[in-house]
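MODEL INPUT / OUTPUT PAIR
PAIR INDEX: 1
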Amino acid sequence: MHRTERALQWSRAFSKRVLALPALVALSVTSLAVIATPAWASTPTVSEVAPQSGPTAGGNAVRIYGSGFTGATAVDFGTVAATSYHVVDDSLLTAVVPAASGGSAADNTSVDVSVTTSGGTGTQTAGFYYTDATWTVSPTSGLSPGAAITTTVSGYAHSKSIVIPEFNPLQIYLEGGPSFPSGAPPYAEPLGTPPYSTDGHGNGSWNFNLPNPFTGNNGSSYDANIQCPVNQTTADYLGNSAPKNLNQPSYSGQCQLAVGQFGTGTLEIPLPYTSDLTPASPVLTTNTSTAQVGDTVTITSGSVHWNANPFFGSSTAHTNPGETALTVQICGINGVSTDCSTTVGSGAVAMTRYKTSSTTTPISATFSGATLTGSIVVGSDTLHCSTCFVQVTQSKPLSGSISATTALTVN
C-alpha cells in the first residue's frame, strides 16, 4: 500500500507543497490516500510524518506513512538513526525520533526522513522539524464556540510567516478517500486573516475569536464527522486519550489549535471546550465467567473504546514506539478489590486508524484499532475466589489510565 499526495490550493498567493501532517496549516494539503501497490514496487516511499515536529532532545514517537516498508532495515532523521522503529504494515511504521544532530543548535531546523529496505531508500525532504518552541492558548479552560482567546508562541523560527488554524483531530487519522475539495482543507479553519509573522526572536502573540461554530470547510459534504467541538462519534473513538504535547504526542478527541509555517514546523495544542463530550467507557469481555487454577482466560473486546493512546496503541510489553503500558490482572482476592493475583497476563490494544476506500464525497470512513486482545493464566493464589474479577488497565500517554473489569469465579 502507499499514500499519494493530493494537493489543493488554500490561497493563490501562497502555493507550495505540504511537507507533513497535520497539513491543515499548509497552503497545499496532503490526504492520506491508500491505494494498491504494484507487486513490482520495491523501493520504499515516504509520504508523511505525523506529528511533523518535536524537540531537539528527540524522544517523541511519530507515525511514518508511505509504501514498501516491509522488511525495513533503517529509519533515519537527517543523518541520525531513529532511536527505535516498528513496521506496522507496508504503508505505516512508527519510530522514536532521535536527538537532533547538533543538539540545541538545530532548533527550528528541518531534516529529511528516510526509510531503507533491501529495495533501496525512500526519503521525504524536510519531513521533520526540530523545535523547542512553546505554543499556548489562554484561557486554558471553559472555552465555547466564538470565545475570545489569546495565542502565544515563544522560541519559534525567527521572522517567519505563519498561519494559525483550528482543526478537527480526524485530520491526523484519515487514510484514503478522495482529494480534498478546493479551498481550505475541510478539517481546518484558519483564524483571522493569515499570514501573521513571528518577531526577530521567534515570538508572537495574537488575539482571536474561535469559529462559531467550526463545521469544516465544505462541511458534511466531505466528512460528516468534521466539527469543533467534536461530535460523539469522534469522542467515542478518540476521547479517552490524553492531550497531545511535543514531548509525548498523542492525539485526543479534542479539537486542536495549530501554528505553522504553511506546512513546516506545525505545533498543536488542545482546545478545552466546556461542551467536550464524555467518551464511551471501555468494555471488557472474557471467554468464561468461571475457571480453575491453571486455566487460561481469554480477553477480548469488540469495543473500539480502548483508546487511551489511540495514535500508537498499548501493550503489556509497551516496547514499540509510542506504546503505553497495559496491565492484565485478576483482582478481588480475599474479598478486597485492591488485592490482585501475583500472576499477570498479557494483552494489547491496537492503534486507532480512520480509513475509507471511497473515492467520492461525502466520505464514509471507518475506525479500526483500539480493540483489546489478551489472556491471563489463573494463578494458585486465586483459588476459591468467588467474588474476583479480571481487570485490564490501559495507561494514558501523559498521566492517568482507563480500566474495565468483568466478574470471574475461580473454583
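PAIR INDEX: 2
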Amino acid sequence: MSYIKHIKMKFIIQKWPFTILALMLTMGLSAQTKIVSGTVLESGTSIPLTGVNILAKTAGNGTQSDTDGKFSIEVNTGEVLVFSYIGFNNREINVAEMAADAVITLEPNSQLLDEVVVIGYGTCLLYTSRCV
C-alpha cells in the first residue's frame, strides 16, 4: 500500500510545476493592459477639442481630453475606444491600431447643430419680481 502512495505522490510532484507554469501564463495573457495616449483634433481646422469623452466600449472605463485635446487611458489590448463630443460624429478606434501618441480627428456633424436652443434674456424688476 505504501508503494502505491509513493508512486501517486511522485506523479503529483512531477506534474505540479507544469500546473503552476500554466496558471502563470494564463494570468499574464488575460491581464495585458496598455496605456493609450494622444490628442483629439477637429478634422478641418486641427483645433484641439476640449472635453471629448473617451470611453472603452466593453470595459466601461473612460476619460476626457484636457484643454489641449490630450488624453491618456489604460485599457486592455483588444479594446475599442469610442470618442464622442457634442456637435461631432462619434468615432470608434481599436486600440491595437493606434500609434504610441495617436492623433484622433473628429468630423463635425451639422445636423446635430439643429438641436441647439437659443435663449434670450430680458430684464427683471427686483422690487416687483416681474420679468419682462
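PAIR 2 NOTE: Residues 2-30 form the longest helix (29 residues).
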